[in-house]
């Protein structure tokens, strides 16, 4: 052995996926990423992602858990929670009380929500007031073509689904910004203040109609159009959930098309690969489960977020239906023996901003799925910090299946950080590890991931279900 070989065998080294995989694997990667782009274009809200998940589940033979009285090995079921949160499960050949292999990802993404009384007129223009959702850099959202997605009740009490801005022939919407010529004061502001939350108003119309004794003639026109099209009035917005998202479709990025640029990679890239992972998993020994949650970007609260009792309730139901009964001891044993891949994106090292990362412990685009012992910020605050035994076990499992993965954490120790659903799942007393795809420009209207990392995330979830 030469010194070079010995050194390499003794040291940690990341591997670029492209240099390691076969042509057949590259072809599989391309197919997966083409399907993923289609998923992103159809799923721009949590509700739309759930629809896609149900379609994928049904196509793979999954049935609604509510329609099933008992479960046997190989049975595939899904359980829906309020159209924004779903669990899919494949019953294992082993006793379910030996534990469940769970992969979890979130399907909400940072965006602008409409306020409950959003429509107003100013200077013969009609606009919609928004309240941003999740951690956005506000300056990134003006001058970007936007689409409107959501649900709203009409005057007859029927829930209407709105999607405008996605079809080739649809109009789009936009938030305007100041011209540089008049932006002297704005340009001197801190980036956090350059665009204020109350300036994120979406332009929705500008053609007044002739109307006697009506002052707001553009708003009047827009209300009439909305009423004609959806049967709604201004009051309808009060109970509506309408999200303003980038109208841009997912695109291949780079001359070599090695990346995908899109809105919502965080965390639909992990959601999609988790879905594909469970759908493609071969008859598992332990029961396999995938959970897609909402509300991660605002702290995982709410009845559709990771803190909701929904997962525990569904696991109880699964045990009951697989086992005939579920005592508290059965539930406790199952949970304690279960393990979870908390699948969420990590920060990809960015050549434009090398100063925020610590090179040895960063995740790099193209170097495979990130598997992280902990996330958190400032002294590991807000992380579950996986146990050594579990990190070791998962690493071995990945290696055995040819999954290319890398370790990392979110930037320099004092730079910032973040957390995700891992800690809430760990609170239940199961082993949890953070894993996911490195993302460039995270939380922006056009996030970027390497296709090779998407592929390795998929391989990782599939391997995990063999545990
Ligand atoms: Mn995330
Ligand atoms: Mn996020």
Q: Could you name the CATH homologous superfamily of the largest domain?
A: Zn peptidases
* Main CATH class of the largest domain: Alpha Beta
Helix content: 25-40%
Overall form: globular
Total beta strands: 22
Output the number of helix runs: 13
- The computed structural class is alpha/beta
Classify the fold: give the CATH topology of the largest domain.
Aminopeptidase
Strand content: 15-25%
Radius of gyration: 24 Å
Biggest sheet, open or closed, and with what strands and sense? 9 strands, mixed
- How many separate domains make up the residues? 2
Corresponding CATH architecture of the largest domain: 3-Layer(aba) Sandwich
Question: What's the mean pLDDT score?
Answer: 96
Strand order of the largest sheet: 1-2-3-13-4-14-20-16-18
Q: Which cofactor or ligand species appear?
A: manganese (II) ion
Give the uncertain stretches in residue-range form.
none
**What is the rounded distance between the termini?**
35 Å
What can you tell me about this protein's structure?
The chain is an alpha/beta fold and 467 residues long. It folds into two domains: 11-109 and 263-464, Aminopeptidase; 111-246, Aminopeptidase i, Domain 2, CATH 2.30.250. The chain contains 13 helices and 22 strands. It has helices spanning 3-10, 17-20, 23-42, 46-59, 184-188, 191-194, 217-230, 265-280, 310-323, 328-337, 388-400, 422-426, 451-464; strands at 63-64, 76-81, 85-90, 100-106, 111-122, 125-133, 146-153, 159-164, 202-205, 241-246, 251-253, 259-262, 287-293, 339-343, 346-347, 369-372, 376-377, 405-406, 417-418, 431-436, 438-439, 447-450. The strands form five sheets. A nine-stranded mixed beta sheet has the order 1-2-3-13-4-14-20-16-18, with helices on both faces. It has a six-stranded antiparallel beta sheet with strand order 8-7-10-5-6-9, with helices on one face. A hairpin with a 2-residue loop joins strand 5 and strand 6. Helix 8 packs across helix 13 (451-464). The longest helix has 20 residues, at 23-42. The relative contact order is 0.17. The mean pLDDT is 96. The site of one manganese (II) ion (MN) has 3 residues, from loops.
């Amino acid at each position: 052995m030469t010194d070079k070989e010995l050194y390499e065998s003794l040291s940690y080294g990341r591997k670029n996926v492209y240099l390691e995989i076969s042509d057949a694997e590259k072809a599989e990667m391309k197919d997966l990423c083409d399907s993923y782009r289609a998923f992103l274009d159809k799923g721009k809200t949590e509700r739309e992602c759930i629809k896609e998940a149900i379609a994928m589940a049904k196509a793979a033979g999954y049935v609604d858990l509510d329609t099933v009285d008992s479960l046997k090995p190989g049975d595939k079921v899904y359980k829906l929670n309020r159209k924004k949160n779903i669990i899919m499960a494949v019953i294992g050949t082993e006793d379910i009380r030996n534990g469940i292999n769970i992969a979890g990802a979130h399907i909400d993404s940072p965006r602008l929500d409409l306020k409950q009384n959003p429509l107003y007129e100013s200077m013969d223009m009609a606009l919609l007031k928004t309240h941003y959702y999740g951690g956005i850099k506000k300056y990134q959202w003006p001058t970007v073509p936007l689409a409107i997605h959501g649900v709203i009740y009409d005057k007859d009490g029927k829930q209407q689904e709105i999607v405008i801005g996605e079809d080739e022939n649809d109009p789009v919407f936009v938030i305007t910004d100041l011209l540089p010529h008049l932006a002297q004061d704005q340009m001197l502001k801190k980036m956090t203040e350059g665009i204020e939350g109350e300036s994120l108003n979406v332009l929705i119309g500008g053609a007044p109609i002739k109307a006697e004794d009506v002052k707001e003639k553009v708003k009047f026109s827009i209300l009439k159009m909305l009423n004609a099209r959806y049967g709604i009035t201004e009051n309808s917005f009060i109970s509506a959930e309408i999200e303003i998202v980038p109208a841009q479709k997912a695109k291949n990025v780079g001359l070599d098309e090695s990346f995908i640029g899109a809105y919502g990679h965080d965390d639909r890239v992990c959601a999609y690969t988790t879905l594909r992972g469970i759908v493609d998993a071969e008859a598992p020994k332990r029961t396999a489960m995938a959970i897609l949650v909402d509300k991660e970007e605002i702290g995982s609260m709410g009845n559709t977020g990771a803190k909701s009792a929904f997962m525990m309730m569904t696991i109880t139901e699964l045990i009951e239906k697989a086992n005939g009964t579920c005592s508290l001891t059965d539930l406790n044993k199952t949970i304690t023996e279960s393990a979870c891949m908390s699948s969420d994106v990590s920060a990809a090292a960015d050549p434009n901003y090398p100063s925020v990362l610590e090179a040895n412990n960063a995740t790099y685009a193209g170097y495979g799925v990130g598997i992280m012992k902990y996330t958190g910020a400032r002294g590991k605050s807000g992380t579950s910090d996986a146990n050594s035994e579990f990190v070791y076990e998962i690493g071995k499992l990945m290696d055995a299946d040819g999954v290319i993965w890398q370790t990392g954490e979110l930037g320099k120790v004092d730079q910032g950080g973040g957390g995700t659903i891992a800690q809430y799942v760990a609170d239940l007393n199961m082993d949890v590890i953070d894993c996911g795809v490195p993302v460039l420009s995270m939380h922006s209207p056009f996030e970027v991931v390497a296709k090779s990392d998407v592929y390795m995330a998929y391989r990782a979830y599939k391997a995990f279900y063999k545990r």
